[in-house]
Amino acid sequence: MKNRKEMTCLFLYNPNSGKGKLLKKLDYIKQKLCEVYQQVTIIATESMEDTILKAKLACGSYDVLAFSGGDGTFNNIVNAVAGEKKRPILGYIPSGTVNDIAKNFGISKNIKKALKIIQKGHVHPFDIGKVNQQYFVYVLALGSFAHVSYDTDQKIKKKYGKLAYYYKVMKEVLKTNLFHVKIETADHQILEMETPLVLVLNSVSVGGFIVNRKSDINDGKFDVLVMKPGFASGLFNVLLKNKHQKIVTNQLSISTDSSFDWCIDGEKGMTGQIFVKNLQNHLCIFSKKEYKNK
Prior knowledge:
Pfam families: DAGK_cat. The chain has eight helices and 18 strands. By secondary structure, the protein is of the alpha+beta class. The relative contact order is 0.17.
């Protein structure tokens, strides 16, 4: 790795993420990044496609790709760089509604604290997943509540934060939508059952709740949780060991009769059968040196 003072940094930010606090701190962010890096370029992104396009510019051109946004923005960044041969180190300033991904690396939503992590420069490798032809970071979900994050209006999220999600969840608890799944893993595990919710996890938390405390984000494996039917469409069964089936694997396929869309890192994804593979330590990010996500 180059000397930090010889490194270049591209900083991308989503002006629509969070409640707009970051916009007031742009000069401060540039000042702090310039203390560490030889060259700092700051660019605003206008859409998912624009984020992906501009993030690709960093591959082979910048040593560090720093960015701000929520879990959706993080997913966009990963999809931009994961398929490239030269991948920059990621620096993250969380500014979304829930910021589940940031919790995995011990990164604070506080801008000053997040910048200190980037400045200190401790590099942490981490796994990502590939679902069909798309990359993801922390969760695939299908069934009850899986659509809440992408169905909640952006303006309402910006105004009410997490409360916007919780309100949407409460409207769903009395609905019961069971569907059939068949899960087959590369190591020949097979699980077939009726369920209200399936989670493929590489994360400690989902939707702001700690649901997988023993998750290890660079062990090369996913934790697959399949809920048993129960009260509130199985919402609370994710927290109870005897109320869900769990599979640990690095590669799997899931077939289903559900017409629901898969939720990929909080965003709307494909429908139907999926093929999932873990790409161990595929990317690197600046995180707390002492932080362990177990």
